[in-house]
Amino acid sequence: MVVHVDQHANDCNTLFDVLHNDSERYSINDPNIFPSAIGRSFYENVFPGGQVDLGWSSYAAVWLRKVRASIPGHFVSLASTGEVRQASKRRRLP
Question: Is the pLDDT assigned to residue 93 strictly greater than 50?
């Protein structure tokens, strides 16, 4: 099961169209993959406790109130190196 989570007011029609029609969709060759969507902020609980095996967030940085630091050549702090990586570690919330 693959669950896409997005704000409830966002239009997910394009996502549903891709999941149904795109010739390169991730579920095209496996009938046991079940995509779905939840209209809720990822800042809220989107599943009951103990129900997630793997969670992955992409492009969620656009919702941050403040960008902590620019990461040359990337957008994920774990991909940074040197002083940028150290600065990212110092700014990390507990």
Answer: no
